Amino acid sequence: MDTNDDPVSRAERALYDIQELADSTAEHHPYWALLYNCSQISKTILEKWNDDLTEEDLSEIRWMISELENSCNKLKNKVDQDSKDK
User: Fold this and answer.
1) In a 10 Å sphere around its CB, with 0-12 CB exposed, 13-18 middle and 19+ buried, how is residue 68 labelled?
2) In angstroms, rounded to a whole number, what is the distance separating the alpha carbons of residues 45 and 41?
3) Which of 28, 29, 41 is nearest to 68 (CA)?
4) DSSP labels for 3-62?
5) What is the pLDDT of residues 8-57, one digit of tens each?
6) 19-48 burial string, b = 16+ CB within 10 Å, else e?
7) Are the beta carbons of 9 and 3 closer than 8 angstroms?
8) Keywords of this protein's UniProt record, alphabetized (predicted)?
9) For the chain, does the N or the C end have fewer beta carbons within 10 angstroms?
């Protein structure tokens, strides 16, 4: 199998398009932080697919997960507020 066509390489190429979207989306878009942090976590995992994650990698992933949690909480608060306003 061509190493440029293995599943990890294909995933990396697809993720590139997702990262382009995240990078070109304004930070004020409500889903930007979710897309950006998910893509960054995925990028780290794919880059290390055949290697071990370092403590630094795991620390960065934990930080991005906390950013995902913050973003989800903000979105939930907005949904809750929108429901009250109706």
Assistant:
1) middle
2) 6
3) 41
4) GGGSHHHHHHHHHHHHHHHHHHS-TTSTTHHHHHHHHHHHHHHHHTTTSPPPHHHHHHHH
5) 999 999 999 999 998 898 888 999 999 999 999 999 999 999 999 999 99
6) beebeeeeeeeeebbbbbbbbbbbbbeeee
7) yes
8) Coiled coil
9) C
